[in-house]
From TrEMBL:
The keyword Magnesium does not apply. The keyword Membrane applies. This is Multidrug transporter EmrE. It is found in: Endomembrane system. Keywords: Membrane, Transmembrane, Transmembrane helix. Its main location: membrane.
């Protein structure tokens, strides 16, 4: 739970930094590109510092170890296969990371922040459901109650009567749900089959691919970059990297069906508290209800 708590803190930090930019003229695409760049550079430094690749035995074949994916034998990839798996899954995750960001921006424009935020947060249903179906990670009865409470809290904190009335369901919402959920699920897919000590290779692949796509898109739309946008992006990059880093660590000991609701709902609590303490924002009545529900949910999930 310690690693999961750190992941929650990092996730909340990302939202609180972005909150700082809400009332200022900033280029979100430049910030996002800078964030991916700094996260990929940081993970590359971690790889080089630990000399992860220099000690990998390159004998054997990744193809010959694919039987592990069948799940018939509970084992993990070898160091060399773990590196290859990290690059493959991480590269695909990088695409999902960027697409979820793009469709979040598009959905906010079409449907507003409330609906978009709800759908984005509910993307955790994808790793939850797949983990139950594929790896049989069933929560206990009490944990199920906590999970349902946390999901309700996510809806309560993001939705309002106005956002529901103005809802005009468009494909962007479905794509936001799928891409966001798959981006989170990629952490589990890597952790389930690969050696955890090579997670920095996976994270480098995620953020490097996302950076390449993001900077290409930013240049195509001729986004204007300022030093301030780049610095904000760098500030976001560190918690963005380590939210995934600690989440992967936590998945070794916490079931996915439990970890992701805690991760999402716990972030909501910290974001609201951070808004109160840092930005002097009042916590709305419905958010207070959501925080109370989340705290109860976390207690139930941990029983």
């Amino acid at each position: 739970m310690g690693y999961l708590s750190l992941a929650i803190i990092c996730s909340a930090a990302i939202a609180l930094i972005f909150k700082y930019t809400e009332n200022t003229f900033t280029n979100r695409y430049v910030i996002t590109s800078a964030n991916y760049f700094f996260a990929s550079v940081t993970s590359l430094i971690m790889i080089m510092y630990q000399r992860l690749l220099s000690d990998v035995d390159r004998e054997g074949s990744f193809i010959n170890e694919l039987y592990i994916l069948s799940g018939n034998e509970p084992s993990l990839f070898s160091p060399y296969a773990s590196v290859i798996w990290g690059i493959l899954v991480g590269s695909l995750a990088g695409v999902f990371f960027f697409l979820s960001f793009v469709y979040y921006q598009k959905s906010v424009k079409d449907n507003g922040v409330g609906i978009s935020g709800t759908i984005a947060k509910l993307g955790i249903l994808i790793p939850m459901i797949f983990s139950i179906i594929i790896w049989r990670e069933f929560p206990t009865a009490v944990q199920w109650i906590g999970i349902l409470l946390s999901l309700v809290a996510i809806v309560v904190v993001n939705l309002s009567k106005r956002s529901i009335k103005t809802l005009d369901f468009k494909p962007a919402l479905l794509l936001l749900f799928v891409f966001g959920g798959m981006a989170e699920f990629s952490n589990k897919i890597y952790q389930q089959y690969a050696l955890n000590e090579y997670k920095d290779v996976f994270l480098f692949s995620v953020f490097f691919v996302a950076f390449i796509i993001s900077v290409t898109y930013t240049l195509r739309i001729k986004g204007k970059a300022t030093y301030r946008d780049i610095l904000i992006g760098f500030a976001v990059g560190i918690p963005n990297l380590f939210s995934s880093y600690f989440l992967i660590m936590s998945l070794e000991t916490v079931n996915t069906s439990v970890a992701f609701p805690m991760y999402s709902a716990g972030s909501i609590v910290l974001i609201n508290l951070g808004g109160l303490l840092i930005y002097k924002e009042k916590i709305a009545a419905k958010n207070q209800l959501a925080i109370a529900m989340t705290i109860i949910a976390l207690i139930l999930i941990n029983t």
